[in-house]
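Hey, resending since the last one bounced:
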Amino acid sequence: MTDQRTTPAAKLLVGASCALAYFALARLGAQLAVPPGFVAALWPGAGLAVWAVWRFGGAALLGIALGGYANTLAVGLGNGAPIAALSQQLVALAIAMATGLQAQLGAWCAAKTLKSEARHGKPTAVLRFVVGAILACTTSATISLTAIALRSSHSFAEFVSNWSTWYFGDVMGVLIVAPALFAWTDARRTRWNRGQTLEALIVGAAVLCVDALALTAAPAAPSALHTAQILLVPCLLWTALRLGQSGVTAFLLLASSASFAVLSIASHVHGRVDHDAALALQLFLAIVGITALVLSAAIEERRTALDALRVARDELEVRVSARTADLEAANRALQLEIADRTRAEFALRTSEARLLAAVENLPFEFWMCDSAGRCTMQNSASVKRWGRVIGRRADEFGLDAPALAAWHDDFQRALAGDVSAHASEHLIEARKHSFDTVIAPIFEADAVVGVLGVNIDVTDVRDLQAQLVQSHKLESIGRVAGGIAHDFNNLLTAIVGYAEVAQARLGPESSEAADIKEIQRIAMRAAELTRQLLVFARKQSVVPRVVELDALVLSFEKMLRRVIGEHIELIVRTRSAPARIKADPTQIDQVLMNLAVNARDAMPTRGTLTIETSVTTVPAIGRGRDVNIAP
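The structure tokens again:
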């Protein structure tokens, strides 16, 4: 336990202090010796020596040996032995060596059993230390009394009696003094509170009172000392339970010192040595001391275990609280994450449903295939044309050879990462349909995993384009016809004018008057045809006037028949009574033309177009409002 870095001066101070302390305790033990000055029943220096060597090492060992040497010389001087005698010096040296050797052995046992300072709280450690001390204490008694016996003559019985007293005195010193020093020099020992300090004072007073009573009763009753010691057992148990090891060691030190003091005083009073009483007291105090030390160690161990358990429980509660808080926070975060994920999943499902609904309701075919060419998805338009073909390949659809070859070419291009588009025609329900097809790759992690395609039926678009082209052609023809009709109308105007001049010159009675009139009628008829051409070309100016509706319809009937064709039957129904309206005849003709053209387009094969005039009363309405009139 000594620090290797201790300076020589400090070591010298430790050695000197240990020598003085051992010498003082030895002189105190000599006063308790029976007979006085020889062998003590309690040798406190033995306990001090073991503790000092354990605590300070070699410096203390030298001081202990020096103190033992000085005490032996002092005892010899007190007995009248010459100090300078060689035999006395040899005995003193032998006792000093024995004292040092015993201290070294006791310190070694303490170091091996207690391991470190104040590690004597375990019962097993206390028992090992007690056994080691009992064995180590044989050293000093054997060597010292052998040296004394060699100098002076003693009987074997005296040697055995002195050896037992010396041995048990050292044992009592080691078992009483050393534990007290171990306990009270431990910086980590439990401090007493005011109540425990008061209890310690009361127990100490009780010890002194009991020993005082025993001393008073000793002359009349020699067994009073043993009775008094038995009375101290409850106090010892109370001390072990309430004050721990420091209280037990202090109690044992006080009780043992007082008891041996009473024994020494009784021996002086009676003038004789009661070795049996001393040995019995030593054995009793040794047994009680060992029991008290083990009991206090067990209680201390239990108290330490309870404290550690309490600390562990508090730490566990803190950890549980922290863990519970962490779990609650994690649970809240998990709930938020679950809520977010639920919302995300709902939004994803909603988005997927909307996407699927949009794909399903597309007005054109939409489909998807995997990399093996098997259909994995198709919308209702695709199902309507091809039937449900999910899980099937294109060669299982019944396509003709050109269409299947075109599909395989587009499919391979899509697997290569390219987009292909082409137009095709197919016969559906006895009608040729035109389709625009687009096939594109599907990528996942930069790899093509399938293809998707759309088939758009552009038949109506193609028809509208054809009609638009035809309309442009008709418009061009109308412009040409309008120009020709306009020029022809100018010629007819000149012909009618000259005919009127000729008729005026010849007079109505002339034989050429009829021919000129026929020329006028034919010219007027030609002018009417010219007007209809101008209506068709939309180059006639708007001139509203009162006209006969039925006459206009009947005059335009021939033009209508030429427009609608021979596959449509035209029926014209007019009123017998005249129906006059104020309108531009050209606009009426154009209305009839539009009706006839629309009817012709609506009946591509055959049908009947009926045009009928009638009189209808229209209610008074405001401007800009719609009027529902039955046809």
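The chain has a mean pLDDT of 76.

Sorry for the duplicate.
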